[in-house]
Amino acid sequence: MTFSSVDLEAPDGISARLGWDPRTSVHDRRRLLARKLVAARLGCDPAEVRVDREAPRGFGYHRRLIATRDGVDLPLTIMTASHRAATVVAVCEPDVSIGLDLRDATPDARELSIMRRHSHLFDESNVLDLLDHWTRVQAVLEADGRGTRVLPERVKLGTGRHTGWIPDRNAVYTVTDLSRDGWVVTIAHAAPEAPRRRLFG
To answer: What's the start-to-end Cα distance of the chain, in Å?
Structure first.
């Protein structure tokens, strides 16, 4: 198995790593990346870290990952995003709200159609701008945590698209581009002391 991965320059307090290999399953990519990140954070060998999917509490698919060491759950949040043969994983303290989005730099016709249906930009023919807008919106939605219950067009982005929020919630997320090697990677995060939406009028 040849699995390539690189560290990303994530915001302070967050560790992120991008990996790709079409022969490695999505679940294995997630676990391999998460183990490396958690081990680096703890200063231990990755072999000492175990990463498993959270046990189901009800019906449905559960993708949240839990890291343990010596049988003890570690107080860390593990967030993942995957697209085709690539996966990105971020690790942070549990009090940080975080969202990730990952996709390649050349969206297909179906993806472009979805972006144009929900983004409502002035110039929807500008694919790079459309992709930049869409990935930031998706990262904010992931950080918000309500998934498909919130339509993408409800997300608001600040000037320069470095912040994002949803009008019915107070959180304002810092949005950062971590793109690397032809993959568009976007992270949205908000620490407990982050500014509230009222500061943005």
So the answer is: 52
